[in-house]
Amino acid sequence: MNKRLLARAGSLSALGLISASSAWADWQMNMPVGVTPISREVFQLHMLVLTVCLLVGIGVFGAMTVAIIRYRKSAGAVPAKFTHNTKAEVVWTAIPAMILVGLAVPSAQTLIRMEDTRDAEVTIKVTGYQWRWHYDYIDEGVSFYSTLAADSNRARQLGSGIDPSTVENYLLEVDNPVVVPVDTKVRLLVTAADVLHSWWVPEFAVKRDAIPGYVNESWFLATEEGTYRGQCAELCGMDHAFMPIVVRVVSREEYDGWLAEQRDLAISRGY
Amino acid sequence: MSSTAVDVHGEHGGRGFLAWAARWITTTNHKDIGTLYLMFSLLMLFVGGGMAMVIRAELFQPGLQFVEPHVFNQMTTVHALIMLFGMIMPAFAGFANWMVPLMIGAPDMALPRLNNWSFWLLPFGTGLLLLSMFMPGGGPAAGWTMYPPLVLQTGDAFPFMIFAVHVLGVSSILASINIIVTILNMRAPGMALLKMPMFVWTWLITAYLLLIAMPVLAGAVTMLLTDQFFGTSFFEAAGGGDPVMYQHIFWFFGHPEVYIIILPAFGIISQVIPTFSRKPLFGYASMVYATAAIAFLSCVVWAHHMFTVGMPLGGQLFFMLSTMIIAVPTGVKIFNWTATMWKGSLTFETPMLFALAFLFLFTIGGFSGLMLAIVPADFQYHDSYFVVAHFHYVLVPGALFGAFAGAYYWLPKMTGHMYDEKLGKLHFWLTAIFTNVTFFPQHFLGLAGMPRRIPDYAPQFADFNMISSIGAFGLGLAQLIFVWVVIKCIRGGPKATAQVWEGAEGLEWTVPSPAPHHTFSTPPVVE
Questions:
Q1: B347 interaction partners in chain A (CB closer than 8 Å)
Q2: Which candidate, A178, A157, A154, A145, places its Cα nearest to that of A245?
Q3: Is B463 noted as a catalytic residue in this protein?
Q4: DSSP notation for B86-130
Q5: B210 and which of A162, B176, B219, B310 could share a cystine (Cβ 3.0–4.6 Å)?
Q6: Single pTM value for the model
Q7: pLDDT tens profile B439-461
């Protein structure tokens, strides 16, 4: 009951923050709600724990502030002599422990759902390279590299003289985006060919390290069409900042058309 | 210290620079060595801080303006290593050297020559690390965590970086052995373990943590070394090794390291708050147990730094729960400090101001730490600026403010003069304000999706980055005030009494200010 109440308080304060962030697009202050069922759950959890922290913070900071104001020597405060109070100490050990249990349960539930990669319809093998991504649509015979867009790449050179704000989607655009169908469970098999990388798209709440010798699994199911952007999230050397991720979520028909086009391309290139 | 210090403390003969240098190089006196540690730490604050200024200058606006990405990566890497191993750990080692013998009524550290060596390894280790930045291929740039395989791409600096870490590790291990032996063997008659000041307690526990953690780091970097030069494949997947194993080993060191840095600050805060509240520390016994509990838990939470590596579900759940549990003893400490102030009689000299800022801001870092423990949410926070904000909130208003509180608290005891309270307060307010201007917006950047360790970013992150950079420049400049306060306090000022602070209690306040070169040659008796 307590948990549900807190979740509701969380979504309330979330509303406030969302409306604030839509007012200034460039001053985004909160985590995106995202476009997958999991990302929405993660957002809820984030707001839940943030709200708990805010409430505890109000209590703790309030007590500190009262102590600072009320027990000033300049206001004539005379020090008391007490050195402990067993009852109080038991209370402030037990209450945080109970709050933690209240947080751990929903977290564990979401985590279990996040780790369930069964029954995916599309499987994409993602390989991190210094400094680009390679995508391989398992069973579809489609694979390609995805590299920072040329205009971003020109502008990002030291002393390029190009104002980044004139480049569309500066540092967040690639030559070949990933394309996936909407409302479809997509499984990712994430690995790396040289050093560590990490595949992160905030709108999907997916961040999975790409590690040589490992094939890590993750998944997402996007429910809204659109273009979603992310970046490599594990330091991978010089151009770590310059290997973005772009995922286009499209209708099933468009996806099938895109697949066919990619296969034709592959044939014409003689793969 | 200046020549007046030599006059006060002088027991070595001779005049001139050589005699002065010989005195400081060969000294085995705990107060001298403490001073050396503190001065070295202050120097490194500006070396590491200078690198932070380069980082924030480059991040002032989108696009690359000042440095190539590779140089930027060296800045983030070496900034962290210098601030951890060169600045904050030596700062607390300095306070331990100065104050632990005074607080327990011992004439000196138990192993004075080892003490000298512990310190003098430090400038060489740090110097090696800094000089490696000028080697072909540039300095260490793989992050302070030195994750393979990337770290194996380091140029000629690679073995020097490893050796520097070894030297710094040996320095820490020797210092902690000395501290443990001193505390366990040299307490004055009547100074039972549960009568020791909290600062001594936190350092005793920290020293044990150092003994557990530092050899593990040494092992990890040695395996990197043999992977690079001797054909082993500890961490190379192609040879049957495991890059994730490095992360497990590193963080088995790395997480206790976090508490190695913060526990002595807890100790200082536990001295400062009762003094300026004129009331004994609330719940002394539970403070000791909470410290021990935090230290124990810190050894079983390491993998919360690596939730995204793809651990099994059970592992993720275990590390989530163990991490969340740390909030309980940490909460106990925060509540006890608040209860110490409750019904006290508070004054707000600079040490108390830093302690109060610590209380508020460290708690914010604790909150974001709790948020990071929630695994599903951590998938969003991990390796973003949210993490940068989190650990800077525990390291700057936590550890560094703790060190500043200690510096202002004990400066009169060390120099015999009161510092300039007006300048101290100015330093405090500028530091506290700019710390928040620098690091608070980084929470928003991380939540909005900005990864850490990047020299350039998309324009949507521009506004908060600019605010953060402005805050950082202010924070950097404000520290010059501290240098001036210290110099001024060494050179003169109102004479400090033995007790210095009205509410101060403990053996260190029974000796004159400045503390004579030799104290407690005859042990005091604690009732």
A1: 72-74
A2: A178
A3: no
A4: IIIHHHHHHHHHHHHHHHHT-SS-S-HHHHHHHHHHHHHHHHHHH
A5: B176
A6: 0.93
A7: 999 999 999 999 999 999 999 99
